[in-house]
Specification:
Layout: E1 4-12, E2 18-27, E3 32-37, H1 43-50, E4 58-63, E5 66-67, H2 73-76, E6 80-83, H3 96-106, H4 111-124, H5 140-153, E7 158-162, H6 170-185, E8 189-194, H7 197-200, E9 205-210, E10 213-218, H8 220-223, H9 227-232, H10 239-250, H11 255-266
Parallel strand pairs: 3-8, 3-9, 6-7, 7-8
Antiparallel strand pairs: 1-2, 1-4, 4-5, 9-10
Helix pairs in contact: 3-4, 3-5, 4-5, 5-6, 10-11
Amino acid sequence: MSFLDIRNVSFSYNQKRMVLKHIDLGVDKGEWVAILGHNGSGKSTLAKTIVGLLHPQEGAITVGGIVLSDETAYDVRRKVGIVFQNPDNQFVGVTVRDDIAFGMENLSVPRADMLEKIRFYADKVGMSDFLDKEPSALSGGQKQRIAIAGILAMQTEMIIFDEATSMLDPSSRRELMDYIRELHDEGLTIVMITHDIEEALWADRLVVLKDGAVFADDTAENLFKRPDAFREAYLELPAALRIYYEMEAAGDMTPPLAETLWRLGSGR
């Protein structure tokens, strides 16, 4: 069984329209999976079901061998954390120090250990000089780093990034993506919810949702050889790949140009 195992999960907010439709998905330990989808495809709803914020009407979710339920939600959240789209929605403390400590306080971590972990993980995300700052004084990228520090301090094994870069400026976005790569290189399991294909290129695997169901599940390289799959899922290919396919169809492609456009468009 995969570290994250989702079987036949369906969910509806109002019983009239299914937002998730019989989702089957596995994520192995240490893997980086990007879940792509247009607005309304169900990707953020899926993220919330994984951490127990929403309860599916059908199916089962298992995280690290624990079947998610009302009784086990607390244990599951010790294994997986989530970084949301709006960093302001993640803060509960008066200072950065308070926020990193929050999850550990809920786990009854001894104070001496907690103080040591606050220092360690603040330093790990490059925010050790901000511990006494108010979260409102930080940039969007800095707020996301503090959210990550709080999750790491709880010794989680997987982090879900739910559109975590969408409200950041380009510089902060690149900085956060670089840091996510570092976490993955250290062995952390990453699930990234996004509508941005270029962002998804960083992942080992792409899962495309369409209208609440898994539409495609493969590596980026394999999926980019099927451009119609992205169009059918209402997703836009990177500009370089769009040019590549248009020129290929027109017969205007030379080998050097083809190689350059493919490399730029596919992130390879």
